[in-house]
Design brief:
The chain has 464 residues and is an all-alpha fold. The protein is built from 17 helices and no strands. The model has no long low-confidence stretch (mean pLDDT 91).
């Protein structure tokens, strides 16, 4: 069941049909059931995994909050080991064993590690990080442990953001499940519908339209022109796909009286790599900052240690996205970009106005597109072929129709980002004057109907 399917629309309406007639605890129970139905739609076997992660952190947090010293740290270690163990088993086992086997062969050893054939559970990286952060926040005494299992289980399995985020913090989301919700007024409903429409537009009209161009340009034997188009098209595809999901998640949650965090803020208008990661996948970048970068020492131990910490964090961020060395390379590229930017900023300290203009934005965008090559490529060989075609013959076989489609997608993305920059929220369309609002939402809805295919295209981040 994906957000761009008829099944999801029926599912959301069915949940809303009984939700506002229930008291708070009944609402939480309904959301919990809905979350498990939503997750089990892909594979009911993984409901046990979701429940296990939930019960571990719920059970650990309460005694941990009453403990101190080494005992308190042992409770935290149990949570971290359990969550990372689940991730390692179901997402990284094949990657680790294949890498170890390759290393052994390189050393002349005949060693074959055990093979574990498992299916990657949808959204496992998201809900394990969310659940683990709850235990860490209790350990740090930032929040009190939940006393209501249904309430906590609802926090972990809240269906709008369960499988692709945003990765919410317990301090933000749990109090909303603990409080009595008020039925959204007309403006809130309108803004929620606007978010859903914008999200579907980003996904169906922009991302899915770019997908064939990307597939062709990354395919073997593609022309240099097709590869050049794909170089830019993938940046638009993955942004439209993931930002679209986040907008639909926020709109769906708002209809239920729950506010989710903003996950994107016009990232391709960033002027440097640091600003990019303050605008892109904000829930993950802040998670890595608070739960990895800061514990490693952050910027408190001198510039050399800070640069090492940045590189480590981005390598982990790359591996979080996928069990492949190409994802690690993608994270490493961004780590190097961050290190270089911090070094340059330290040597050229001055007013930010001196770095404004279109050139820093273009440089940051193209560096980001270069890193996306490794994110999209299935192997280093494929990434190398793409980069070779870009270097040797970027204009050969370039088609005007592809350029026109790419330009339209870029213009549509820029228009939506302009709304975000001006109003801070795509749902602000609902606050426009009636005529402007009607035209904007009508155009979005019509475009979605025209471009929607017979079968909904899965979201890219479902695989993470």
């Amino acid at each position: 069941m994906t957000f761009n399917s008829v099944e999801y629309a029926v599912f959301l309406l069915a949940v809303l049909g009984g939700y506002w007639a229930l008291p708070r605890r009944g609402q939480n129970a309904l959301l919990l059931v809905a979350g498990y139905v939503f997750y089990g739609w892909w594979d009911a076997r993984f409901l046990l995994l979701l429940a296990t992660s939930t019960l571990i952190d719920y059970s650990v947090a309460r005694p941990m909050s009453r403990s101190s010293g080494p005992k308190r740290r042992r409770w935290l270690a149990l949570s971290v080991v359990a969550n990372l163990g689940i991730l390692a088993t179901f997402k990284y086992w094949g990657f680790f064993t294949d890498s170890a086997s390759t290393l052994a062969r390189g050393l002349g050893l005949d060693w074959a590690p055990p093979v574990l054939e498992v299916v990657l559970p949808v959204g496992i990286s998201f809900y394990t990080f969310q659940s683990m952060s709850y235990a860490i926040d209790v350990f740090r005494r930032h929040i009190e442990p939940s006393r209501d299992l249904i309430e906590y289980a609802t926090f972990v399995s809240f269906f709008p953001q369960l499988v692709a985020g945003p990765i919410e913090r317990a301090g933000h989301l749990l109090p909303q499940f603990a409080a009595t919700r008020t039925r959204p007024d007309a403006e809130q409903v309108s803004s929620a519908l606007a978010l859903i429409l914008v999200g579907l537009f980003r996904k169906v009209v922009i991302a899915d339209a770019m997908a064939p161009l990307v597939a062709e340009g990354f395919g073997s034997g593609a022309s240099g022109g097709a590869t050049l188009v794909a170089f830019y098209a993938f940046a638009l595809q993955i942004y439209g796909d993931f930002a679209g999901y986040s907008a639909i998640a926020r709109g769906s949650a708002r209809l239920l009286g729950i506010e989710l965090m903003v996950n994107f803020n016009a990232p391709y208008l960033a002027r440097n790599p640091t600003e990019l990661w303050r605008r892109w996948h904000i829930s993950l970048s802040t998670w890595l900052r608070d739960y990895l970068y800061v514990p490693l020492g952050g910027n408190r131990r001198g510039p050399g240690r800070q640069r090492l910490n940045l590189l480590v964090v981005m390598l982990v961020g790359g591996l979080w996205h996928g069990a492949s060395w190409t994802f690690v390379a993608w994270g490493g590229i961004h780590g190097v970009l961050l290190v270089v930017h911090h070094w340059w900023r330290a040597r050229h300290a001055g007013p930010e106005t001196s770095r404004r203009g279109v050139l820093p934005v273009l440089a940051t965008f193209h560096a980001t597109c270069l890193a996306w090559v490794f994110f999209r490529a299935s192997s280093f060989d494929e990434a190398g072929q793409v980069l070779s075609r870009l270097a040797e013959s970027p204009l050969s076989g370039l088609r005007g129709a592809d350029l026109s489609l790419l330009a339209l997608a870029a213009a549509a993305t820029a228009a939506l980002d302009a709304v975000v920059l001006r109003h801070g929220d795509e749902g602000a369309i609902a606050r426009w004057q009636p005529a402007e609002r009607g035209v904007a939402m009508g155009v979005l809805a019509l475009a979605i109907l025209v471009y929607a295919g017979a079968e909904p295209v899965p979201f890219i981040y479902f695989q993470f």
